[in-house]
From TrEMBL:
Molecular-function GO term, any one: methyltransferase activity
CDD domains membership: AdoMet_MTases (cd02440)
Annotated protein name in UniProt: Class I SAM-dependent methyltransferase
Acetylation listed as a keyword: no
Chain segments annotated as coiled-coil in the UniProt record: none
PANTHER family assigned to the protein according to its UniProt record, in alphabetical order: METHYLTRANSFERASE TYPE 11, S-ADENOSYLMETHIONINE-DEPENDENT METHYLTRANSFERASE RV2258C
GO biological process: methylation
Record keywords: Methyltransferase, Transferase
Keyword Phosphoprotein on entry: no
Record-annotated S-adenosylmethionine-dependent methyltransferase Rv2258c-like winged HTH domain positions: 22-96
Highest taxon, organism lineage: Bacteria
């Protein structure tokens, strides 16, 4: 096998860039969590002392963090005045006022880095890393879905199933499987007071957040429960729900096919199953040009797949893809499946699923 020196040098340059960009991801996450970007957006141009005074942050940390953000091309710096500026074009992608805040996704990098030792051990011995090792994962997922799902749920996602918003307005029984911290379910409950909503999730921490938010908002038509869905195919209440939803939840279940069969069992004959899951294909070579492919495979390896394996599960992974998802839905008994994309969302596919094929 011949050795290409130019290829080696180019790859060396690329790996240096990987190190810089990886470090920058950490600092973008810190900038989001501390509110530094929001303060910069408000105060620019400003010195590190002015930013620290207004924000209440420590000036020494602000200055050093800004060093990384300046050298990373995120923040501008005027050496004559000592003032930092967050360009408006960058603020539109990094602040809480932004419709698409990319800094939210940067949080996955340090979050996953915290379990690197566990993942290394899994590479060597197999097994998985349990949910308990990810104390902030549900909070980050809530921010993530807040931009991709919640912002579009009422006006764009529900109408993918013709007549569904009207049925919810009149009154339906709805189940959200793998509800997480319940933001989607609470939004639905607030929007459709004539319908009744139930959420199931394995995480007691997430369920408690959903319950607390429902109480604070005075929502009396929504309930949450901690539940292991590994036997949902035999334990699900038969033909009980008009609508079942899963938001980014099926692929990290211990037994995803059992969950899908349980959804089929608990859905009424004329009901709708709405599944949001990661956009992708089941074979890696079809994902080479995926704009988020590397990030999604990494999240899958270091969270979605491993938490399933930690339960003795299948370890399906986030990148199970449309093809395998379609096969599983067919095996679960569903006859009608249509897959949709939303213009603003490069990350997800939206499946509208019914028990029987349309006549």
């Amino acid at each position: 096998m011949s050795y290409d020196t130019q290829k080696a040098e180019a790859f060396g340059d690329r790996m240096v860039d990987v190190l810089n960009q990886g470090a920058l991801s950490l600092m973008v996450s810190v900038g989001h969590r501390t509110g530094l970007f929001d303060w910069l957006d408000t105060l620019s141009p400003a010195t590190s002392t002015e930013i620290a005074r207004e924000s209440g942050l420590d000036e020494r940390y602000v200055r050093e963090g800004l060093g990384a953000l300046v050298t990373g091309g995120v923040v501008d710096y005027d050496s004559e005045t000592g003032r930092y500026t967050l360009p408006p074009e960058h603020a539109d992608l990094l602040t809480r006022r932004a419709a698409e805040n990319v800094a939210v996704f940067a949080q996955y990098i340090p979050l996953l880095g915290a379990v690197e030792d566990d993942i290394v051990a899994c590479f060597q011995r197999g097994g998985g890393v349990p949910y308990a090792r990810y104390p902030r994962f549900h909070a980050v997922m809530a921010e993530d879905s807040g931009q991709t799902v919640l912002s579009s749920l009422i006006d764009h996602i529900l109408p993918l199933a013709p007549g569904l918003p009207e049925r919810l307005a009149v009154g339906s029984r709805v189940l959200d499987v793998g509800c997480g911290s319940g933001r989607a379910l609470n939004l639905l409950a607030a929007t459709y007071p004539n319908s009744r909503f139930q959420g199931f999730d394995l995480s007691g921490e997430a369920v408690a957040i959903g319950q607390r938010e429902a109480q604070e908002r005075g929502l009396e038509n929504v309930r949450f429960a901690v539940r292991d869905l590994s036997q949902f195919d035999v334990e699900a209440e038969p033909e009980a729900f008009d609508l079942v939803t899963t938001f980014d939840a099926v692929h990290d279940q211990a037994r995803p096919l059992s969950v899908l069969r349980g959804i089929h069992r608990t859905l009424k004959r004329d009901g709708v199953y709405l599944m949001q899951d990661i956009h992708g294909h089941s074979e890696v070579h079809h994902n080479r040009d995926h704009p988020l492919g590397t990030l999604l495979y990494t999240i899958s390896c270091m969270h979605c797949m491993t938490v399933s394996l930690a339960q003795g599960g299948e370890g399906l992974g986030a990148m199970w893809g449309r093809e395998q998802a379609s096969r599983y839905l067919e095996e679960a008994g569903f006859q009608s499946v249509s897959i949709h994309r939303l213009d603003h969302d490069i990350q997800n596919d939206y499946y509208v699923i019914r028990k029987e094929a349309a006549h």
